[in-house]
Amino acid sequence: MAEKNNLCSICGEALEDPEFTPIYPNFICRACDEKAVTFQGKPPSHFSDADDGDNPVYIDGQKCWRRYRFGGYITMLDDLDCQTLDEFYARHK
Q: Staple 8 to which of 2, 29, 36, 42, CB 3.0 to 4.6 Å?
C-alpha cells in the first residue's frame, strides 16, 4: 500500500510521480488533473513560454492551484480555500 502522501488528494489513487509529493502539498494525479476547469467551466490555459496559466482551477468542484514551471505544471488541492497561490503555499507548509 502506498503512503498517504503518495496518493492523489482527490481520488486517493497512487500517484504516477511520487517524487514531487514532498515538495508540493496535496498533489493531484494526472487522471483527476485532466478534469480541471476554470471558474467559468472552460479548459484552463497554460502558457509554457512564460510558465504561467489559469489559477485557481476546479476538479469535481474542488478548488486547486497549479504551479507552472519548466514549461509544464502540477496541480494541488486547496483544502483551506486560499485566495492566492502564495497563501496556499504559506498555509500548507
A: 29
